[in-house]
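dumping this here before i forget
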Amino acid sequence: MIVTLTANPSIDRTVTIDAPVTRGAVHRVSAPTDLAAGKGANVSRVLRAAGVKSLAIFPAPRGHEYLAGIEAHGLTALATPADGVRTNLTITEADGTTTKFNQPGAALSATQLAALEDSLIEAAADADWVVLAGSLPPGVAPEWYASLVARLHDAGARVAVDTSGAPLAAFATAATMPDLMKPNAHELAELVGGNGDALEAAVAHGDFASVRDAAGRLVRRGVAMVLTTLGAAGALLSTAEGDWFAASPPITPRSTVGAGDSSLAGFLIALSNGANAAEALRHAVASGSAATALAGTGVPTPADLDLDGTTVTPLD
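structure:
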């Protein structure tokens, strides 16, 4: 089983416009779609579509519309006490360009945060992987994710982390590192130094040295696998045994929302099915690309994946 934690869940409201966003202009939008989301919940949706057992854990008030949305997804879920759930707005343009406006979320009291943590640790006893994903609610210490890793390891679970900002920066000095980290180029640069745009540009020109060096620093600190997503170019997987690059298959982009979550889910699905590192990378990139070809926070199914069109290259 794979347990996902969404510490700061959201209802993702998406609208589509036909022309590029122009400041100060009036735009006519499509009818909005609302989705019970958050990075961990998004991962659980992809896992469910692939038939992989998952438990989605998040804080949400009793009777909140978020719970109805999670139920509609068919997810096995555990909600802990909270006073609210935020609503985020996503604007998607015709060419797939995505602009997001994210609220900070509802603060958790000390009692509510303890309940969330205790539920996670208890569930980890039956989990192969625990995914810590997304931002933290206001007021939660940035080191909270890092502090959970050792406890989750003690419970016997492997830990994957996909976050950004201060919670990601806390891993720069963490005593115990997760088994898997999934940064994008900008998040990798945030953590180890450098420029995310420069990392992506170098890869686009076939130069992997900078991103390999950056990811390698995390591997040397004890992260078993670093899955660095590189936008339309694909992704790079770094381990102590070697590095691999997977190029994205050809697609028509519609929305990048949830693509990174789908990549992480695809990687974990493949590992759960016994794939080696290189093959798991292929599934990660194929899954993220398939999500990008779907509208809104689309959930790719195994039938949507273009595995033959996703090329994996070992790097010397």
